[in-house]
Each structure stands twice: as C-alpha cells, then as structure tokens.
Amino acid sequence: MIRNRVYDKGTTIYALISPKGKYDTLFPVKGVIYDVRHSDSIVEYQIRISHFYDDINFIKRHFISAQFERDFEGKMIHLRTKYSKFKSIKEFNEHIVSANFIVVVDGPMVCKRMFEMQTLFNNIHDFFIENKISGMYDMCSRSYYNNGTYYYKSKGVFKAHLKKFLDDRGYGTDAFLDDILYRPSADRLDKTS
Q1: Are residues 105 and 143 in the same domain?
Q2: Element (H or E) spanning 15, and its range?
Q3: In a domain, 2, yes or no
Q4: 14: part of which helix (H) or strand (E)?
Q5: Angle at 147 between CA 143 and CA 148, to 5 degrees
Q6: Which residues on adjacent β-strands are paired with residue 12?
Q7: CA distances from 8 to 11, 31, 37, 44, 68 (A)
Q8: pLDDT in tens, 153-181
Q9: What is the domain range of residue 93?
Q10: What is the model's pTM?
Q11: Does 151 share its domain with 182?
Q12: Per-residue pLDDT tens digits for 76-110
C-alpha cells in the first residue's frame, strides 16, 4: 500500500491537476482543501484553486474545454469563459478565485510546499518527455513511413541526432539515450513476469 501524507480541510496546498482524458497535461496550482475523502487505496482532495503557475499562453492552449472532476461522485466541470479576455496570468487567477473553481485531486499529486510540487512536476514531466521521445522514434521508424519527411532508417541515426540535441544539457550520454530509446514497452514487461 502506498502511503501519502494526509492533509486537513482548510490547509493551503500545492497540487498538480490534470483534465479528464489528458493525463499528460499537468497544471501546477495552489489551493485550499475544501473536502477530503479516504478510501482503502487512496486519499482524494477537493480543492478550491487560488493560483495557477503556468503562463497565460499555455493556459489558453490547454485549459480550453478541459474538463475536471468537481466532486467525489464524478461530476465534471469546465471553466466557461472567453479565454481571449485574459491578457495575463494575474487576470486569469483573479477570475479563478471569483469563479470558486473546485476540482478533485488524487493524494499523491498534493504537496505542502511549492518546491515539493515543483520537484514532483519536474519528475513526472521528465517521464512524459522521455516517453514522447521514445514514441517519436517509433513513429519515425515505421517501415511503411519509409518515404516520410521525418523517417529514420536506423536507431543509430536517430540516437546521434538526439545526442546532439541533448549534449548541451549534459544528458547526451549513451547510457541515458539507450534508457530512453530501448525502454521496454508494457507488452514486453508483461511477458517477463
């Protein structure tokens, strides 16, 4: 059983929320716990959001028509507004507070301190990016795509281009690239057990 810290109602927290069906899009937010639900496997929090940390352009691109779980019964909500009226994240945050925007968040995505949330966000986001890099190679190397614009005939060429891209960041080592590109799929993991 995974154990997570449990917070009380009224506690100010930092959380990562994701829209229903778009679990690889995370929004770092600050909020106050409105309600708590304990179950055998996980703690869920209903939080009233007071602050978004993304820039307004990211919010406009990814928050539009995004639906979030509003209560523990599964009722969905989305923010009904014209996103073009927001020129800054400050204006958007003021609207969120006045709209009393409440969402449900799983316990593992809730932190007490902002730096904890940022560390969690970076770790999860690194995983998403590495997964997309691996997926990009799978898409670019399909045999039927052999005349496509982004086709790669071999993993070695793709790896060399990726190494050039990541070298300045210190992540261009062969071991790191092999870990991303040769990561076992879920099917291969299932067959080993």
Answers
A1: no
A2: strand 12-17
A3: no
A4: strand 12-17
A5: 90
A6: 32
A7: 6, 13, 11, 11, 22
A8: 888 888 888 888 877 766 667 777 777 77
A9: 12-112
A10: 0.82
A11: yes
A12: 888 777 777 888 999 989 988 888 889 999 999 99
Mean pLDDT, residues 45-72 taken together: 89
Beta-bridge mates of residue 35: 46
Q: In which residue are the tokens 């716990």 written?
A: 33
Question: What six digits make up the tokens of 172?
Answer: 């261009």
Residue 53 forms part of a structural domain: yes
141 token code pair: 């190397």
Question: What value, to the nearest 5°, has the Cα angle with vertex 19 and ends 21 and 121?
Answer: 110
DSSP 23-69: TT--EEEEEEEEEEEE-SS-EEEEEEEEEE-S-HHHHHHHSTT--EE
Domain end (from 112, 141, 158):
112
| Cβ-based neighbour number of residue 92 at 10 Å | 23
